[in-house]
Amino acid sequence: xxxxxxxxxxxxxxxxxxxxxxxxxxxxxxxxxxxxxxxxxxxxxxxxxxxxxxxxxxxxxxxxxxxxxxxxxxxxxxxxxxxxxxxxxxxxxxxxxxxxxxxxxxxxxxxxxxxxxxxxxxxxxxxxxxxxxxxxxxxxxxxxxxxxxxxxxxxxxxxxxxxxxxxxxxxxxxxxxxxxxxxxxxxxxxxxxxxxxxxxxxxxxxxxxxxxxxxxxxxxxxxxxxxxxxxxxxxxxxxxxxxxxxxxxxxxxxxxxxxxxxxxxxxxxxxxxxxxxxxxxxxxxxxxxxxxxxxxxxxxxxxxxxxxxxxxxxxxxxxxxxxxxxxxxxxxxxxxxxxxxxxxxxxxxxxxxxxxxxxxxxxxxxxxxxxxxxxxxxxxxxxxxxxxxxxxxx
Length: 394
Fold this sequence. Notes:
This protein is α+β, with helices and mostly antiparallel strands.
């Protein structure tokens, strides 16, 4: 019996690589991404941030000045002057800032991917919990039926005085305990469903997958880390920040060039008037002092920070990978050992032949059932660890 249960419930573990996902898993994650309130709010925030960044490259408003001077001692007519001007930074500043804005927009996209990962990773883990509960429920349903059948058999023996009242009571308590375990599992599953509903923007989430998918094994750490470098949004944000800091240097150098002003000027007095082009230039003696040095220092810091952060993440990744491999090896040993046993059937046969009392049978059965439950728990923990290792694939 136990061997059949192992074969039925212990299959390849779940992976959320897009190509390997089942429709139910993909649908669940897509629903959450579409409906999640946090992602919607963050998307609106990034749109606002994007527009603000674009607005920073706008020209200043044009300026209009007018003078009418009728008062004072003068023999000529009243003096009139009108002027319209447009100030702007040196033209290369706008192209340099435009490149900076494009880099900031790329960084914004990575920030959304990181926020998306922060939402979907807990969702994947909750879905793993649901799969775990589905597997446990199937096991408990079998155990409830078995304990009920055993109680009925002992009750029949009790009626013909071949079993005592103590054995009858123990069998009934065992049946009640299995029913209670099943009720707890149902309650825990409902709690997980409420958490997923909250992630899904308050909408009920449809999820029917009841087993893990794909292979237990994952790629070697070197290849997996190279993939993580290319795809993980947190690492990509670090690189984008470095690019932005480098572009800030170029922008600061361009901003040290003079600002320009151009316009039209009109002057009129005593029926005579003069008009023409107006031009002006600022001399950047003070405004750009130390700005380039500050940008260069920030770039040096960002390069160092990127390297340090990457090294820390690499160390943490290798540690998680090593722990996963140890867990995987132990699980495989556990699975192989339990798969080769038929202890549950042998125990039941020994009890029916009178070789074991009910208490001896019950204690031995509990031992093997707990071992099977531990294997299911290890399977779930492996999935959760795998989710952490492969979160960059979300």
